[in-house]
Amino acid sequence: MTLPLGSVETAMLAGVRIVAFLVIAPPFSHRAVPRRVLAMLSIGLALAVTPRLLAGDPARVVATTGTGAFIGAIVLQVVVGAGLGFLVALVFAAVQSAGTFIDLFGGFQMAAAFDPMNMTSGAQFQRLYQLTAVVLLFVSNGYQLVISGLIRTFDALPLGASLDLALLVHAATDGLTQMFVAALQIAGPLLIVLFLTDVGLGLLTRVAPALNAFALGFPLKIWMTLTFVSVVYLAMPHVVDGLVTKAVSAVMGVTG
Fold this sequence. Notes:
The chain is mainly alpha-helical.
């Protein structure tokens, strides 16, 4: 069996970009997804996208002249895939940040524990919101939009082209700002309720100092959080749908 060198290298470089993206971008970056599945998915997507690359612009067909040049091309694709995956992860970090805000203001942060699935330390709502976002991405087929956005990057940014690092840094900075704004928008209604609860306890303490209203603050805030969190939680499908659109737009904005 004789295989063209350019076709083999094109498939390998496409697979490197895809696997670097999937390792960082949600929902595939979650440790509940086996790494063997990620490897098989990356190989399958690379084999599927290679004929598209070979049938298009000849400049997309990579044929390096030596081992050093090929290793450099691999490093370049790792940087491109990791950079694009980081932008997607930054968008979906808003859901986890919203859960962190709820844990912090609701008093659940004191029960933070190490999460071996994500190798991070977080409380209950942080993990609940993150797992909900992962499930919704698979149930609503949002992961297909993420993959389609990745495949379209091969048209906007061929294998032989390099990623504009200045544009990537600008997109990451803008994405970080949008992440905090989105987190506040997701958890905002509940945070306002908890803030008003603190204000009410403060006024009650001023009126009746002997009552020691702040001693009741922790159970009261936990009860308020559990009561009104459903209002925020029911909006998660709409929130995840909007985050998928933002993630795809962020990826295409860097490669376009």
